[in-house]
Prior knowledge:
By secondary structure, the protein is mostly helical. The protein has helices at 4-31, 37-55, 57-60, 65-91, 94-101, 104-115, 122-139, 151-175, 182-204, 213-237, 243-250, 253-264, 271-288, 291-299. It has one domain (4-291). It is globular and about 50 Å long. The protein starts with a helix and ends with a helix. The mean pLDDT is 83.
Amino acid sequence: MLGANKQLKADLMLILVTLCWGVSYFLMDICLGDMDPFTLNAHRFIGAFVIAAALSWKKIKTINKITLKYSILLGVLLVIVYIGATFGVKYTTLSNSGFLCALTVVFTPMIARIFLKQKQEKKVVIAVIICFIGIALLTLKDDFSVNTENLIGDLMCVMCALSYAVVLLLTEKAVSHEAVDAYQLGVFQIGFTGVFNLIIAFMLEQPHLPTTGPVWASVIFLSIFCTGVAYVVQPIAQQYTTASHTGVIFAMEPVFASVVAVVFANEILTTKSYLGAFLMMISFFIMETDFKKLLNKKQI
């Protein structure tokens, strides 16, 4: 049984990671005023890799071919994930991007059911229906017509969520392999993501360093806390807490993103949007709650 103090500390660590991810949408918005998307992601991931590699070189220098292969595959997928996230932030509201990118919680079991033939509980179907109603309320206009102003950004965020669901499933397959070191996988996938983004940046953009203090600060925070620390803290914390705790905590990411958007970016949500966001949160919690376990506890 997990120690109460260790579990509390682990949950607090995961809440900190989730808060950082919630703040990241606002920070990306700041950075995109100064640099192009691929340049930003190159700075973010290469910076995170350099820091992680410097702090744990002895642990990662012995990487084997299988771990390296999975790291490259995940690096390619993460490029797609962050194309969706970064362009999504650029072309839709911060609130929308926060909630839509969090749809990974719903998409992962859907993909597992359709392509991997993994059986899913009834609650998954219920959660998906509620979630899509929430998406409609959050993204459509008041008369329920398509909001063409944010459509590209909204679709990019959905692409981000779908891609990250594939990342989670591939990661699950990778770490189940005896020869794969989970920590090395985490560090090197960050490195490859950064390199791939840098190559694309030189092909499509004009890469440059941040030009102002706020942008420098945002890039550094994104690199250290939202990328490097997050990839290291998550597996460590999950040794001392449960998967259900982790899922519920990560479902709070869009809430943090929305709060930051309202407080710091002065975004205003309509009543319909609030309702949509609330329904999406409900769907996330339905997905991550073990109702059978709760019912058994009540009967004891």
